[in-house]
Amino acid sequence: MKILPEKTVERLSQYRRTLNNYVAEYGKSRIYSHELAALLNITAVQVRRDIMFIGYTSVQRKGYNIKDLIQVIGNIIDSPDSINVAVVGYGNLGKAITTYFAGNRPKLKLVAAFDIDPKKVGSEVNNVKCYSIERMREIVALNDISIAILTVPTHAAAEMAKVLIQTGIKGILNFTTVNLHVPSNIYLEEYDMITSLEKVAYFVKHRPLG
Amino acid sequence: MKILPEKTVERLSQYRRTLNNYVAEYGKSRIYSHELAALLNITAVQVRRDIMFIGYTSVQRKGYNIKDLIQVIGNIIDSPDSINVAVVGYGNLGKAITTYFAGNRPKLKLVAAFDIDPKKVGSEVNNVKCYSIERMREIVALNDISIAILTVPTHAAAEMAKVLIQTGIKGILNFTTVNLHVPSNIYLEEYDMITSLEKVAYFVKHRPLG
DNA sequence: ATCTTTTTGTTATAAAAATAACAATATTGA
DNA sequence: TCAATATTGTTATTTTTATAACAAAAAGAT
Ligand SMILES: NC(=O)c1ccc[n+]([C@@H]2O[C@H](COP(=O)([O-])OP(=O)(O)OC[C@H]3O[C@@H](n4cnc5c(N)ncnc54)[C@H](O)[C@@H]3O)[C@@H](O)[C@H]2O)c1
Ligand SMILES: NC(=O)c1ccc[n+]([C@@H]2O[C@H](COP(=O)([O-])OP(=O)(O)OC[C@H]3O[C@@H](n4cnc5c(N)ncnc54)[C@H](O)[C@@H]3O)[C@@H](O)[C@H]2O)c1
Question: B106 pLDDT band (50/70/90 cuts)?
């Protein structure tokens, strides 16, 4: 299958999440494009177009079979075997994420944490054990970890990214407030909360309408 | 000034952050577009175009005066008087954010937290006090809070958003895993960590190059 | 049976965002 | 002094993303 547009991948993830909630809440088995769109604050065309991209088709006029759609999305965005993830930096944010993450996605498993602080090493949240940085190579290999969530202090981020890449990690989700530089075979996604907040502040002040 | 494109606003926030770090680290006073671009993994044209949008100009060929640029960005994305922010849901994530946020941005002040749990009400992190939901209207008015960061459990999110809007809040940064529905005069920004992670997983598997 | 309505799937168009191209200008060095 | 170079500011083009338009199919109504 052709590689999907970034935005479509993001929305597919959200469709699935939303559909799972929807089934749980309303117990319906089918949903119209405009209903799903309304749940996500987007347009029905957008939904139909994304679904077209992944090649799923419903019987016309009946809406989409939710169970099937969830499955098809899974076939696209999940990998067949599950992917293992580690949190690097087991502080406030790292632990919050670990707590939250537990069993959230069947195909994404948070299997280890790493920290430099001897007081944190050995601790456990949600069955996720914290290891020292020295053991990173070993643990990453042992557990076949391919994605890291980076929540170390800013000053340590670049160095940690380097080490992670050496251990063989393939993707990084970076929550620290520095932009990392990675080779082109590593997929990097960055999120900065302050940027989001400043954006909200700007548009609260400047948006048309009132 | 004309309203800026969303992406430009996001990058301006990052330029400022990056420039502040850069000054602190290297003590230089000027920076070239390509240098700033490299720090953010984007192109120099992008930087110049954003800077064009905000109307700042340097002396040609000398690069940008960092101090001035930081200031001009501030004039654009900060509001003249500071904006007050509240965290709603003082759990793992809410507290992590509070700790992190402290004094991070001079013009964005985290001034209160709210929680439904009596054990949390009255507690304090980083001088940010937690209040009961009942006192929300009062505290929001008293402190002129216009932005809320929503970190309550998923099931409570829609209701809390409704209440927040009733109290007069103008922007919401939503970290819960449901999409909210707000009137068009409220600015809503949503971030879902699982979506980010699933995106990383997808592109780790599917990206061209190796 | 045929008309109307609803909803999908797809192609066409528009809008937003990123990139490229390049003129203008300052600086350096011959 | 004048050519070569480096860098900005801006317009033009391309790419990506979103929206609109509409044909086809199903279901129901008359
Ligand atoms: N807390 C938040 O809500 C929040 C929000 C956005 C961004 N961030 C960013 O996330 C990062 C972590 O924030 P936090 O609030 O959890 O901080 P924290 O201080 O609570 O946690 C950082 C952890 O990293 C560990 N650490 C330090 N150096 C390390 C190294 N070299 N290798 C591995 N681990 C190391 C520390 O021992 C600590 O446990 C920061 O960069 C911060 O800017 C945090
Ligand atoms: N922890 C994370 O890293 C993380 C990441 C992404 C998203 N989230 C989302 O953020 C939200 C909070 O996550 P968390 O890990 O901090 O959970 P948590 O359980 O630690 O915190 C939730 C807090 O909200 C309070 N609360 C419950 N009902 C409330 C109500 N009606 N009004 C106000 N407060 C109420 C609880 O008392 C608790 O203090 C969840 O929706 C979760 O999906 C969390």
Answer: confident
Average pLDDT over residues B123-131: 95
Tell me the ligand closest to B91's alpha carbon.
Answer: 2
What's at B52, amino acid-wise? M
Domains A6-76 and A83-195 alike in fold: no
B179:A209 CB<8 A: no
- Give the A:B interface size as CB pairs under 8 Å: 183
- CATH code: domain A6-76 is 1.10.10.10
pLDDT grade for A209, boundaries at 50, 70 and 90:
low
Contact A179, B21 (CB under 8 A): no
Kindly state the tokens that stand for B112: 């209160």
Is the pLDDT at B210 greater than 50, yes or no? no
Radius of gyration of chain B (CA): 20
CATH architecture of A83-195: 3-Layer(aba) Sandwich (3.40)
Output DSSP code: residue A133.
G
The pTM (predicted TM-score) of the whole model is: 0.96
**CA B116 to each of CA A3, A185, B120, B121, B135: distance values in angstroms, whole numbers, following the listed order:** 44, 46, 8, 7, 11
**Span CA (A64) to C1' (C6), Å:** 14
Taking the centre of ligand 2 as the mean of its atom positions, its distance from the CA of residue A79, in whole angstroms, is 29
Q: In chain D, which nucleotides are within 7 Å of a protein Cβ? A: 6-11, 16-21, 24-27
pLDDT of residue A210: 43
Q: Would you say B8 and A195 are in contact if contact means Cβ atoms under 8 Å apart? A: no
Q: Which two tokens stand for residue B196?
A: 């980010």
What would the two tokens of residue B31 be? Answer: 């920076």
Task: Pick the residue of B111, B154, B196, B209 with the most A CBs within 10 A to test the interface with A by mutation.
Answer: B196
- For A41, list phi and psi in degrees, rounded to 5: 60, 35
CB B50 within 8 A of CB B41: no
Choosing from B14, B87, B100, B101 the residue with most ligand 1 atoms within 8 A of its CB, the one to mutate for a pocket test is B100
CA-CA-CA-CA dihedral for A29, A35, A41, A42, to nearest 10: 100
Domain boundaries, chain A: 6-76, 83-195
Query: Burial letters for B131-144: b for 16+ Cβ neighbours within 10 Å, e otherwise?
Result: bebeebeebbeeee
A5 CB below 7 A from strand D atoms: yes
Question: Which residue in chain B is spatially nearest to A150 when comparing CA positions?
Answer: B197
